[in-house]
Amino acid sequence: MDEGLLNIIFDAHLRTLPDPWQTAKRILARKNEFGITRLGSVTNLDWIGIPVVQVVRPQSLSVTVSQGKGMTFPLAAISALMESLEGWASERIAPDSIFTAPFRESKEQGLWSHLGVRDTAETLTWIDGVDLFSGLKTSVPLGLVDTAYTIPSPHPKWVPRDTSGLAASASVQHAVLHACFEILERQARCSALETPHFFDRFQINTQSVTAGLSGEIVIKVRAAGFGVGIWRIPTAHEFPVYWVHIMENGEQAPFAPLPAEGFGCAFTHDNALASALLEACQSRLGVISAAREDVRTDLYSYPGASELAGWRAQLAKGERTYQTDVNNGPLEDPLRRILTALQLAGAQAAILVHLHSDERIPLHVAKVIAPPLETNPEFHLAW
Questions:
Q1: Among residues 98, 100, 103, 78, which one has the least CA distance to residue 17?
Q2: Cα separation of 218 and 113, whole Å?
Q3: 126-141 in b/e burial notation, b at 16+ Cβ within 10 A?
Q4: What are the helix (H) ranges across 53-119?
Q5: The pTM is what?
Q6: How far is CA 317 from CA 53, 143, 231, 287, 321, in A?
Q7: What is the dihedral of CA 293, 185, 364, 353, to 10 degrees?
Q8: End-to-end distance of the chain based on CA atoms, in angstroms?
Q9: What pLDDT, in 10s, does the model give residues 36-94?
Q10: pLDDT tens-digit profile of 358-379?
């Protein structure tokens, strides 16, 4: 890892990102190189009005359709493009950056004991990263990094394959921060699913969300004829994590009646909740558009009227008051704060693999792995 890059990542101040539409245009000027064939809005397939954009990359080795969201179309477009390029970079890892070695010979073998293996002689493919806790070079099983979801898999089935901690941005610092926030968000979700009576104990009164970007989105969604349910997930660290459901309020004929959910973690309550709300709007359009291969068939089921009414009644509950932000001043040591949060969540390492860098766009793709944090509650059900 280049020492200058680490200095940039640990810079005390977040660098300003370039104009999203200019960055999007530079990406689209090279769309053939990236394999992108379409950038299009699906916003008007629903009636909420939050911009949602899809990017199609037919030769993808994971999902071919990526989605992005934002309060404006340029923000939604760059969000979708960056998600698509995450996959593009992580399925094209240079052969000279990987190596093979028996698992039992790895000096970091203890980091991966949570995967359920101990002294296997199985040969794995590895890639080197740097542990942001210690600054030391650390080898990672490639299956935790790449998105070459081919059949048969090139990796053992006990290696969890998901995109948690994979992020792209115009700034390497923002890419790393986004990756870390995603890990904290998904680890919190796993924790919430194991918390008794979570949905009854941690629901926020939606009426108390009136200010900031999150208040603007709640007002917009409810005015469009939807109920909103908000839960704050308890964590061991300082950063708020929210879980959101949005659902048709039943006042008109059902269109996509099941709740759509979203999650968000950020430096502030407003940004975390806004992120979760936007993701829920995006998730709903993922189902409506029927364009993504990873949308499960059960999301197209049609529950009975009483079941839907029960869900709507749950969304209307919530006794906790939304916690507004006290200090919105400049952030100090953002990465060190988020690394502390990962440690408090139980991470023994935060290994950065810098997958792609191109300052002509600019574009940086990073993967952060934080063993032994659980980030995919469905993994153990898959085999």
A1: 78
A2: 43
A3: bbebbbbbeeeebbbb
A4: 73-90
A5: 0.94
A6: 32, 42, 11, 26, 12
A7: -100
A8: 35
A9: 999 999 999 999 999 999 999 999 999 999 999 999 999 999 999 999 999 999 999 99
A10: 999 999 999 999 999 999 876 5
